[in-house]
Amino acid sequence: MLRLIPILFCFVIAIGAASPAKAAEGEHPPHLHWSFQGMFGSYDKAALQRGYKVYSQVCAACHSMDRVYYRNLTALGYSEAEVKAIAAGFTVTDGPNDEGDMFERPARPSDHMVNPFPNKEAAVYANNGAFPPDMSLLAKARHGGANYIFGVMTGYEEPPVDAELLPGQYWNRYMPGHVIAMAPPLSDGMVSYEDGSPETVAQYASDVAHFLSWASEPTLESRKRTGFKALLFLLVFAGVMYATKKKIWANAH
Ligand code: HEC
Question: What whole-number distance in Å separates Cα of residue 92 and Cα of residue 107?
Fold first, then answer.
């Protein structure tokens, strides 16, 4: 028993040492109910379309999504013609042409989403020295996923009195370290919805988090379907095996 004391002592010290690091993390974001959770979960196409609208009208000014192609947007319920029209609203640099010059043309469904900045340096320069991360995989890359994105969108607060913020920095409850170099991007009424959904920060935040979850895992639905079929197969197979075993051993005493 006595030998346990130094071990317990180390334990207490280790916990004590871990606490300041914990304080520097963001708080756990609120847990929302997402339609894509659970074994039969799937994306809500109306939420995806609203989320894309929020992304393209607000976030796309700073955050790229260059692993997503305009043609992928058919998964949100848009027709091919609608996707073509969406893409054509953006301009990309292509080339070189026969004379060796780069030229601009309307984007096509086969292009990836247009990057707001020509390179990382330009993005950092335009954002006070902070880099707005590419959003293609953000929901997968961050602990908490959609809840984290929702949390950051809705977690802006007055900083505590002893916090020292530089110009361009804000206090956010759910950002790791609490300090974020992004001004609150959303405000009530800034994006208009045609389907009557509330035009509020909370609704925009949940829609854009839904959309970003789809972007980071577009095959979630087929993965779940395959998983379910595999489970069903295993269940039936187990039944058949059990019956076979009973039959084979029926006469053995
Ligand atoms: C004016 C430019 C700008 C706009 C518009 C903008 N952001 Fe940001 N965002 C940034 C910058 C810069 C950072 C990096 C902040 C940092 O590192 O402190 C950032 C960081 C983030 C983070 C935290 C990323 C991480 O590393 O965990 C999230 C989440 C985020 N943005 C979501 C959004 C969403 C969603 C929108 C649209 C509703 C949006 N942003 C609009 C500039 C912008």
Answer: 6
